[in-house]
């Protein structure tokens, strides 16, 4: 594991008028991760035929049953924020959890 990632949660907060509004991204915890290699055919944009791994990175982290990852969380890696689009938790071997992510502002 060579990369540090941070998990963020965005909970709604109540404003002064009593209306629930989106809050700010709040750090939950950070951990070490490995950026997984993705075959080029899996991350190419169908319209441009060009891919950028930084727009849709996949991470592997140590499996921790006491900290199950919530799919509504976001991941901060190298200063960019990514939404979680897929989670593969290895309940069988209890070895790694794999995260599929996409840049928040990517199209």
Account of the 3D structure:
By secondary structure, this protein is mainly β. It has a single domain (3-103), classed as Bacteriophage SPP1 head-tail adaptor protein (Thrombin, subunit H), CATH 2.40.10.270. The chain contains 1 helix and 6 strands; from the N terminus they run ββαββββ. The protein has one helix at 40-43; strands at residues 3-14, 20-36, 58-62, 74-77, 80-89, 96-103. The chain has a 6-stranded antiparallel β-barrel with strand order 1-2-3-6-5-4. The model has no long low-confidence stretch (mean pLDDT 83).
Q: How many β-strand runs?
A: 6
Predict the CATH topology. Thrombin, subunit H
So, the CATH homologous superfamily?
Bacteriophage SPP1 head-tail adaptor protein
Average pLDDT value?
83
Count of distinct structural domains: 1
- The assigned CATH architecture is Beta Barrel
Q: Characterize the overall form.
A: globular
Q: What's the CATH class, please?
A: Mainly Beta
- What percentage of amino acids are in beta strands? over 45%
Order of adjacent strands in the largest pleated sheet: 1-2-3-6-5-4
Number of helices: 1
Low-confidence stretches: none
Helix content: under 10%
Order of helices and strands: EEHEEEE
